[in-house]
Amino acid sequence: MGIRLLYRGSLGFSYVNQLDRASLRKAVAAAFGMAKAAVTRSQDVRMSEEKLVKASDIKKPRIRYDDVDNRDKIELLKEADAAGVEAADKLGVKLVSRFIELGKWGTEKHVVNSDGGDVRFMVERATANYIITAYHPQRGVVQRFENLGESSGWEAVERWDLPGRLAEEARDISKALLKGVEPPREPVDVVLGSEIVGLVCHESCGHPGEADRMLGREAAQAGETYVKPELFGTRIGSEHVTVVDDPRLPRSFGYYLYDDECVATSERVLIDRGVLSGLLHNRETAAELGTHSNGASRANSYSKEPIVRMANTYLKPGDHSLEELFEIMRNGVYIKSYQEWNIDDRRWNQRYVGVVAYRVRDGKLAEMIRDPVVDLTTKGLWSSVKAVADDLKFYAGYCGKGDPMQGIPVWFGGPSVLLSSVRLGVRRPA
């Protein structure tokens, strides 16, 4: 049980895993002692006035993960491993390292507060993760990883088709390793695949859009943000760019209807048609900034204090097909997936290294490109978006934040987008 209390403008938090009366009294006393020791703070903590929820949200999977025999799970992992190895072998490439895992993330919460909120929440999340490394003696090494996850049971694992997915990934990275050439040196139009777009949304919009981060409370842990109060209403991208965070998406890895302060969730708009629009709030940040919470308070355990978190962050789709983006571009580069990325503490300068990528000539996919690098500022990237496809897809991730660190399940996603006039780098010579 986690216990959080507010005393004379200061918060205290404690937790206990023994629910006898003496242990509970001790935990409450610890939380009170923490709050009392902090009352000299110059700025009082307040909670925004909200209509708090009394509700229950119990999600039961169609096939419970634990009802599937472990021998069947192991056999599936072996099949996926063999499928990847065989696909690479046929192209003369070795998968020298393979890590494939299946898992379940069960969540059961009962949140009660003194303002009248009372929420029960239970969900089972299926997960699968893999990292594969392809090697060729003359061409070097390429690595690929992916996380899969959704709020479902074993039925999600069946839908993922791990053997087919590993075979396709092994073929793609083997071809990139063998056939990839350097990207063009001159500025070109670039189509980014939905996986990269989703990651950009998470890193350059979601994290900087956390209100506690803007208030300086993550500076020593996850970093700062370029977002400042005076920037709201200013343009940071083209009119094609609308980025939102929505916990309510069915089956999503970051799914929840009510947050850990008993506030109902909604779609939170971070960028609206290119204009910096909003933040993710809990009741504390909402009170400090004179607004309302939008249900972004989450903790990954009873032993952690709820803080402002993302759920499912994505770019709204457009009305073009992926093929139409190629036709609009005519000549350029298509970067389908990534193998590494990094971004600075303020979430402004960022770098994404593609793994499966192609030249596009006369609107058609041509030769493969090896290790293209997109290196842009947040405003530079979003401002260069000139068309958005309708192929919205989501990808699972484990978002880290806080101290002690809290990893939570999220989705990030988006459609493919067309960027105008990007100068690509290369990680290594092809």
From TrEMBL:
Signal peptide: none
Residue stretches making up the Metalloprotease TldD/E central domain: 66-178
Example of a GO MF term: metallopeptidase activity
A Pfam family it matches: PmbA_TldD_3rd
Any single GO CC term annotated in Swiss-Prot or TrEMBL for this entry: cytosol
Keyword terms of this UniProt record: Hydrolase, Protease
Record flagged with keyword Protease: yes
BP GO terms, sorted: proteolysis
Domain Metalloprotease TldD/E C-terminal, chain residue ranges per copy: 188-424
Family that this chain belongs to: Belongs to the peptidase U62 family.
Protein name: Zinc-dependent protease, TldD/PmbA family
